[in-house]
């Protein structure tokens, strides 16, 4: 099992319909290639965690790096693991809306979202840096 977390910045003209189309395509691809993960999109920033067989994750990440819908791609961390943080989701996602949400609502949604995954109950070095970046994207705008 291989896990990878990256973040990037969407191009200026990237809009909500684009994210839903991308998400639909990703879920189909991921289910066919046994890839799970989580995608956060807020304030024109992406944060994504990908999990699966190393060959499949690396192949997908090569495609992601070539995608012209984003730039400033930065790998946060990678690890080999025997478990998945998001084992039941081909791609978890939550829409915070175009105008954002209050800090309390954001925190409550994140808590509910990640309680479902039991991410902090699983032995992984990815959970802390992933959630630290979630906080940065949600509360520290570009």
Q: Write the CATH fold name.
A: Alpha-Beta Plaits
- Kindly state the percentage of residues in helix: 40-55%
Number of strands: 5
Structural class: alpha+beta
Low-confidence stretches: none
Rounded to an integer, what's the Rg over CA atoms?
A: 14 Å
Strand residue percentage: 25-35%
H and E string:
EHEEHEEHH
- How far apart lie the N and C ends? 33 Å
Our count of helices gives 4
Provide the residue-averaged pLDDT. 81
For the record, the CATH class is Alpha Beta
What is the number of domains?
1
Strand adjacency order, main sheet:
4-1-3-2-5
Global outline = globular
Description:
With 142 residues, the chain is an alpha+beta fold. It has a single domain (2-139), classed as 2-Layer Sandwich (Alpha-Beta Plaits), CATH 3.30.70. The chain contains four helices and five strands; from the N terminus they run βαββαββαα. The chain has helices spanning 16-32, 54-66, 103-117, 127-139, and strands spanning 2-10, 36-42, 45-52, 70-80, 92-93. Strands 4-1-3-2-5 form a five-stranded mixed β-sheet, sandwiched between helices. A hairpin with a 2-residue loop joins strand 2 (36-42) and strand 3 (45-52). The longest helix is centred in the first third of the chain and has 17 residues, at 16-32. It is globular, with a radius of gyration of 14 Å. The N and C termini lie far apart (33 Å).
């Amino acid at each position: 099992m291989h896990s990878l977390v990256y973040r990037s910045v969407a191009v200026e003209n990237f809009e909500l319909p684009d994210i839903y189309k991308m998400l639909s395509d990703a879920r189909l691809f991921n289910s066919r290639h046994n890839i799970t993960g989580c995608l956060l999109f807020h304030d024109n920033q992406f944060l994504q965690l990908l999990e699966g067989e190393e060959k499949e994750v690396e192949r997908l990440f090569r495609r992601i790096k070539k995608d012209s819908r984003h730039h400033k791609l930065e790998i946060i961390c990678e690890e080999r693991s025997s478990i998945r943080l998001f084992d039941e989701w081909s791609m978890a996602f939550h829409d915070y809306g175009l105008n954002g949400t209050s800090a309390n609502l954001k925190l409550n949604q994140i808590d509910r979202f990640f309680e479902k995954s039991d991410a902090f109950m699983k032995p992984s070095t990815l959970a802390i840096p992933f959630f630290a970046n979630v906080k940065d994207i949600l509360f520290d705008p570009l």
